[in-house]
Design brief:
With 251 residues, the protein is mostly helical. It is 65% helix and 0% strand. α2 (51-68) packs across α4 (88-103). The protein starts with a helix and ends with a helix. 28% of the residues are buried.
Length: 251
């Protein structure tokens, strides 16, 4: 009798184990399948983007965090993103430069790990402060930026010609000359532009009409609209900007 009872208990245990297996195995398999599928989709999505595009997105995330917290040191978080791919300082510095421009904070330029010339140049033009031009290092390429900085803020074409050993080599498509034309409100200076995109952008600003941007290539449309906004502060153009990052900065 005791043996029969033990046998019955054993059979019941076996049935319970089998039933449990049937119930749980499919659920576990389904969850694993969903997780695997989700990871595959993310992987495929990332593979569609170039490494530089992914880095740029991550830099923008760091920049947003820095702006939200009103603290540029969040840009240093970029080292965590890029330590395995090239020189991370370039992306960290990119974050610092954008932060400096958006907040008009010249002191942030001092935080850059590499050349600070472009940062000072951008801030000098944004703040229209010629004294900031002299913070640009007077060496090689930085020297050209310093001369262009003075040319634009002093509205003096002659600085543009000093950028080259032979002044006559400065062609009508010189970037420096176009920028000075902006400051002098000399619409004929748009003819100095070296390509259609830059010329249409110049005409848009000079005429106060962003529709000139409509004639540029699609890849440059957002650039033209956004640069027009930065120059004119005409926020009616913001709705035309498709790039989310630029659109969010356009108010």
């Amino acid at each position: 009798m005791k043996k029969v009872f033990l046998a019955i208990i054993f059979v019941l245990l076996v049935i319970a184990i089998i039933v449990s297996g049937i119930y749980f195995i499919p659920k576990i398999g389904k969850n694993d399948l969903n997780d695997s599928s989700s990871q595959t989709k993310v992987s495929e999505k990332n593979e569609q983007k170039s490494p530089s595009a992914l880095k740029d997105e991550e830099m923008q995330e760091d920049l947003k965090e820095a702006l939200d917290n009103k603290n540029p040191s969040y840009c240093e978080g970029s080292y965590g993103h890029y330590s395995m791919s090239g020189d991370p300082s370039a992306w960290v510095d990119g974050c610092y430069k954008e932060y400096a421009k958006i907040t008009f904070n010249v002191s942030v330029c001092e935080l850059l790990h590499g050349s600070r010339g472009q940062c000072y140049y951008d801030l000098a033009l944004l703040l229209k402060d010629v004294e900031i031009c002299d913070k640009i290092p007077d060496a090689s390429i930085s020297r050209l930026a310093r001369l262009e900085c003075h040319a634009v803020l002093e509205k003096n074409y002659s600085y543009c010609y000093q950028m080259y050993e032979k002044p006559e080599t400065v062609s009508r498509d010189s970037h420096c000359l176009v920028l000075v034309a902006f400051e002098k409100e000399d619409i004929s200076g748009c003819d100095f532009a070296d390509d259609l995109e830059y010329k249409q952008y110049c005409l848009a600003v000079m005429n106060g009409d962003f529709s000139y941007c409509d004639d540029v290539k699609s890849d440059y449309l957002d650039w033209c609209y956004y640069e027009y906004y930065l120059k004119t502060k005409d926020n009616s153009v913001c709705s035309r900007i498709e790039d989310n990052f630029r659109a969010n900065l356009c108010e």
